[in-house]
Design a protein that fits this description.
The structure holds two protein chains of two kinds. Chain A contains 18 helices and 22 strands. Chain A is of the alpha+beta class. In chain A, helix 2 runs parallel beside helix 11, helix 11 packs across helix 12 and helix 12 crosses helix 14. By secondary structure, chain B is α/β, with parallel strands linked by helices. In chain B, strand 9 and strand 10 form a beta hairpin. The chains are: A alpha+beta, B alpha/beta.
Chain lengths: 602, 468
């Protein structure tokens, strides 16, 4: 294969250098292609526009999966994080998740260097105004300065920039986020090329001056020093700061309710749909009237700055209202706002127009990743970015795309949900979205995905070797337990009240040969073996539906028994297999059985 | 799929009951309906090439083989998907003879249809998304209904009341699942009273499922009919009463006490209700082994009966220990019957009544009859009917399940719910509890329709304040 390398011709062009754009461009470049990444502002590569944190429930899973495929996010946060914690330690092991506070400035610097250190990658500060499409195939982009860049594949990771509109109270202005230009023309180019767009809304909190916060009476939340780093390549992390917890109260709620008429959300100024799981504080106060207080986490944004992020206080109320209600909160009595909270509306592409490879069905070679697909969250964006990058590269190399199944990765669940269900609000990952939650754990992300990373050529040798070593240790310990004293301890370990530590003395010091990490993986594996095999059976049962392919030219309009709604949905999404069809919302079991009768098994 | 052919071929069957009648009904469903109908039906005065759906046409049935007309009939064509099965259908109403109806069916079969299997029209309606499984079942139950009560229950099922009830259970389930998922996915949120709510909800839901499971027993009882046992001392004329009720000589009667040694069971309709009448061996102390077995079986019958006719000889009202036991169990549903009125030689029946009521603690007054002449039977039937109505009335809720399939699924779902509840109380991992709840919902789903992951999230966001 010949790679292009002139100043305006590339294999892959990535538009945007946020969390999706970074992984997409690194993946393509590391897989040996010439790639260009175009961003409106080079100083904001890997910017954390909202929460200065990586991970969280189900998101921690995504970060570890990205790492296992050869991505950068895990390594970046391990090195730039300032507080690390494991969530759900008191609940079951399968739903434990990692979360870290980032030093957002260091994180940005780390990511910019990561891009700069790749020789295959060209980095450009500019804005893309339109796509060039020939015969249904993308051939490049046109910059706002008029130049044309050509490429075999284009990956759009535009975040909230497409016709972005920022709201603070009833005041609004065009911006990609506070402080950056909006991209006002690219949407039109997408529409002209036949893509259907929608509009979403999200929001962020005001940023507070830490010098004006009284932490003395607030509850402190410390990091954990025995935290397992996100990347399998990393050995340790550093906890540098604590977070603090405070609460809203009746006065806060009154101050908010009094000024609802100045809220763009309640005056109908905002038309985009916001995320239900991350409502603004005004939304929470209105919808849950009986709740006397809401919890607020005060999170420091960087060791080099006094700015604090009050997690839980996303708002688009006017600036003076923001200050009013903030000052009613304990610890914030004298607070000063450095940047106001705001809401932002932006265009997204209805994701049902994508294939599982993240390539659009209509325009060949055009891939989309991140918020442009209706998702929310840095981790969700990065997860799509790495898949889009890998698949753009594989396509150019003439290879089959990498498509992860729902039982293989949260990434698989994420992409399959977007494509088969679509989304009308910003889509966030939850563990409850994964039907095979017990299999898709943080601790086994490397076991699940490193081979895929290796096969695509993205995963480096260092990480692959570590994975191999761990897999080996895991298998050794399992077979030791299964054979030692006829497997007595293997069976004993299945009981809820027994762990390996408590029976370590009886195991003849064998345990000492293994890492703590391996020991806990084995423990988990043994304890949940029954449930895991139940899920495996279910997967095998459903897998047979993957084998029933729906032919591309099947005419759903003329299948008797399908209701008009069902036919419309099928025509829109055009599922490729029966199992895809069965996951589309509104497709009834009866409709699936009708389809089944018309499909041949491959 | 081998069933591919089932779904597109055209099926046909005689829908009216077997035997001669005024008019028969032949019904067909499938893609060739229009084609077949145009081949075999020649309407009077109308051009059949642009047949209007849902209009009645009068005309003649044409036999292609003999090239002759075989009957005059009315037909209607119903265009899918707005038909019972969701496919194109037609119905032909020929004259109600046995031969002509069958012959017309033959003609249709030769024109490209095949004979429908039992329940296949309803099965297609289900497969074509016209009705839920539960409705398909209820239609079958309506056809099989044998009393007003069973008809009402099956019809409530058809009209969706049962589905609504199951939907409610499902909603509760989803609420519990949403609670568990909220605890898992939002570890840093504060949820008030969530634990107590979960346990309360799980207990309520278990109660609702348990209630539905019990409703099956009630439906079964209604379906098999009410059982009425005729009991009493030997030779008071129990078998004669049965024979008179049935209007035939079913049981052997004789003057020798203890003639009926096993029980005899017969069905009859009493005011449109199916009633099972059971004649039992006379109740007395005995050394005879066979008779002893018979008496033991009588006791079992009485225990299981819905109502008891306890028979006395008008000339012999002697006390009876066995009766005292029966009275304790069946007091409200026992009717004292004084037989052999024709042989009464005393003066005043009211003396007998008073004596009887003094000796025994009957809840119902005695009925005087004569099995020989039939006197008093109307009163006895009325008294029996009143008791049946009373029993029916005590079953307040007419919404219940009607098939073993539904019952088994509910039992399984209840078991999973109880597992989840116990694990929650023991503080076991939430993701395991979630699996039990999901399985519990899936089992419920087999009764009605689909639940998606979105349903859980919708509930979660509706019910819990979330969002840091």
């Amino acid at each position: 294969m010949e790679t292009k390398n002139s100043t305006n011709s590339f294999d892959v062009i990535v538009v945007g250098a946020g969390h999706a754009g970074i992984e997409a461009s690194l993946a393509a470049a590391r897989m040996g292609l010439s790639a260009a990444v175009i961003t409106i502002n080079l100083d904001n590569i890997g910017q954390m526009s909202c929460n200065p944190a990586i991970g969280g429930l189900a998101k921690g899973h995504l970060v570890r999966e990205i790492d296992a495929l050869g991505g950068e996010m895990g390594k970046a946060i391990d090195k730039t994080g300032i507080q690390f914690r494991t969530l759900n330690t008191k609940k079951g092991p399968a739903v434990r998740s990692s979360r870290a506070q980032a030093d957002m400035f260091k994180y940005k610097t780390y990511m910019k260097s990561a891009l700069e250190s790749d020789q295959n990658l060209t980095i450009i500060q500019s804005m893309v105004d339109s796509l060039t499409v020939k015969n249904g195939k993308v051939s490049g982009v046109v910059l706002w300065t008029g130049e044309e860049l050509s490429a075999d594949a284009v990956i759009l990771t535009t975040g909230t920039f497409l016709r972005g509109l920022v709201h603070i109270g009833l005041f609004n202005y065009k911006a990609g986020r506070a402080g950056d230009f909006a991209s006002n023309k690219l949407s039109l180019s997408l529409i002209e090329n036949g893509l259907e767009l929608g509009r979403l809304k999200t929001g962020t909190t005001p940023r507070l001056d830490g010098r004006t916060i009284d932490f003395s009476e607030l509850e402190e939340q410390k990091g954990e020093d025995d935290f397992i780093p996100f990347s399998i390549a990393d050995k340790k992390i550093n906890n540098e700061i604590s977070c603090y917890i405070t609460y809203t109260n009746k006065n806060t709620h009154d101050a908010i309710l009094k000024d609802l008429d100045k809220s763009p959300l309640y005056c109908g100024v905002i038309k985009g749909i916001g995320p239900r799981y991350c409502p603004s504080i005004e939304d929470k106060v209105v919808r849950f009237k009986d709740k006397e207080r809401h919890q607020i986490f005060l999170e420091r944004e960087s060791l080099d700055s006094v700015e604090y992020y009050p997690n839980g206080l996303s708002t688009s109320l006017p600036l003076d209202t923001q200050l009013n209600f903030l000052r009613s909160i304990k610890g914030l009595e004298n607070v000063k706002i450095m940047r106001p909270g705001y809401a932002i509306e932006y265009d997204y592409v209805l994701p049902t127009q994508l294939n599982h490879s993240l390539e659009t069905k209509k325009i060949e070679g055009l891939f989309l990743a991140g918020q442009i697909n209706g998702t929310s969250g840095y981790e969700e964006a990065a997860a799509q970015g790495i898949i889009a990058g890998i698949n753009a590269a594989l396509k150019i190399k003439g290879e089959k795309p990498l498509i992860l199944r729902r039982d293989e990765a949260y990434i698989g669940v994420l992409i399959d949900d977007l494509i088969t269900l679509g989304t009308s609000e910003p889509y966030r990952m939850f563990t409850s979205r994964a039907e095979y939650r017990l299999l898709l754990r943080e601790d086994n992300a490397d076991f699940r995905l490193c081979e895929f990373g290796k096969k695509t050529g993205l995963l480096d040798d260092e990480r692959y070797a570590i994975y191999k070593e761990r897999l080996d240790g895991f298998n050794k310990l399992i077979s030791f337990l299964k054979t030692y004293e006829k497997g007595k301890y293997y069976d004993l370990l299945k009981r809820p009240d027994v762990d390996l530590e408590s029976i370590a003395n009886e195991l003849n010091e064998e345990l000492n040969k293994f890492d703590k990490d391996i020991i806990s993986r084995v423990e988990l594996f043994v304890k949940y073996e029954g449930y895991i095999s139940r899920q495996n059976e279910e997967i095998n049962r459903l897998k047979k539906y993957d084998d029933f392919k729906i032919e591309d030219d099947m005419d759903f309009n003329f299948i008797p028994g399908l209701s008009i709604e069902v036919v419309e949905k099928l025509n829109k999404i055009r599922p490729k297999t029966i199992s895809e069809a069965s996951r589309i919302s509104g497709i009834t079991p009866a409709a699936v059985s009708i389809l089944l009768m018309r499909c041949r098994k491959e | 799929m081998s069933s591919l052919t089932y779904e597109i071929d055209t099926i046909c069957a005689i829908s009216s009951p077997a035997g001669e009648g005024a008019i028969s009904i032949i019904r067909a469903s499938g893609k060739d309906c229009l084609h077949i109908l145009q081949k075999i039906f020649k309407p009077y005065r109308k051009d059949f090439s642009d047949i209007k759906p849902r209009f009645l046409y009068t005309g003649r049935i044409f036999d292609l083989q003999t090239e002759s007309f075989v009957d005059e009939a009315v037909c209607v064509f119903i265009k899918g998907p707005n038909s019972y099965t969701g496919e194109d259908m037609f119905e032909i109403y020929p004259h109600g003879g046995v031969f002509n109806t069958k012959y017309i069916l033959e003609i249709i079969l030769k024109s490209g249809a095949r004979l429908a299997y039992n329940g296949e029209f309803t099965k297609r309606a289900y497969l074509n998304n016209k009705i839920s499984l539960i409705k398909a079942e209820s239609i079958l139950e309506i056809i099989k209904a044998n009393s007003l009560k069973t008809l009402v229950i099956a019809n409530n099922e058809l009209s969706g009341l049962l589905e609504k009830k199951i939907e409610k259970i499902k909603e509760d389930y989803i609420y519990m699942l949403a609670s568990v998922e909220a605890l898992i996915d939002f570890p840093e949120e504060e949820f008030e009273n969530l634990n107590a709510d979960f346990i309360k909800k799980s207990e309520e839901t278990a109660g609702l499922i348990g209630g539905l499971i019990e409703s099956y027993e009630n439906y079964e009882l209604n379906k098999r009919g009410f059982s009425v046992v005729i009991a009493g001392a030997p030779n008071v004329g129990k078998s004669s009463i049965l024979n008179r009720l049935l209007d035939k000589k079913r049981a052997i009667v004789s003057d020798t006490p203890g003639t009926t040694r096993d029980y005899i069971e017969e069905n009859l309709f009493l005011s449109n209700k199916p009633v099972k009448i059971i004649d039992t061996a006379g109740l007395r102390e005995t050394d005879n082994k066979i008779e002893h077995e018979g008496i033991k079986s009588s006791h079992d019958q009485i225990k299981n009966a819905d109502a008891v006719l306890y028979v006395f000889d008008v000339n012999d009202l002697s006390e009876n220990e066995i009766l005292t036991d029966i009275l304790e169990e069946k007091k409200d549903n026992l009717i004292p019957v004084i037989n052999k009125l024709d042989t009464f030689n005393g003066k005043d029946l009211s003396i007998i009544e008073k004596k009887l009521m003094r000796t025994f603690e009957f809840a119902n007054g005695p009925i005087f009859i004569s099995a020989k002449t039939g006197d008093g039977f109307d009163f006895m039937k009325k008294a029996l009917h009143d008791i049946i109505l009373k029993i029916e009335g005590s079953v307040m809720d007419d919404v219940g399940i009607t098939t073993v399939r539904q019952k088994n699924l509910l039992v399984k779902s209840l078991e999973l719910l109880n597992n989840a509840k116990d694990k929650f109380k023991e503080g076991r991992p939430l993701e395991l509890i979630s699996i039990d709840l999901r399985d519990g919902i899936n089992v419920l789903d087999e009764i009605v329709g689909g639940v998606t992951g979105e349903d859980v999230l919708d509930m979660l966001f509706k019910e819990f304040c979330i969002g840091k």
